[in-house]
Fold:
Amino acid sequence: MKVVVDFDECASNAVCMGILPEVFEVRDDGYLYVLNENPPEEFRERLREAVNGCPTGTFIGGWWMCTDYRGHQLCEGTGVRYYIDCNAIPGHPFPGGCRCAGGTCANRRQNCNVFRYGQCNTHIKGTTPVVCRVVACENPGTIAGLGCSSAKMVDDAVCGHEAACLEPVAVQLPGTGGA
Structure:
């Protein structure tokens, strides 16, 4: 496996470094550096988590836990899955407005639900639209760099949420600006 960073999509927000410091590093100059372009196979699952981060123009506003995950995507076989909300930065509407993710309503709605669980980045005030959700296989409060507490919110009704837009990194539309 080879690690290649798409710097048009990477926010250099150090989330990947918090999950996999053996492979990624964000230095004082604000740029992401790949420390190991060919990491060992045992890093595969953590690497998937590392690239599954919030896009530019958002912040991690909160998370909840599914305790009965039986799906076949990220966290398969663990029975537990954590859904992390990427909220729009207050005062900076996310480009594109409320819409179906990926241009198809077979995916989840994006940037429509104004909601915040609130266990993460409490220094950022306000409740803003959830732009997207990302998934982790461990309590977000234990992942360095996310700014989350370990206070649990459980919602097993979401255990079946596996629409395609939950897994890949959200992509900001070219030429639309944003934070």
In short: Residues 44-50 form the longest helix (7 residues). Helices lie at 15-19, 44-50.
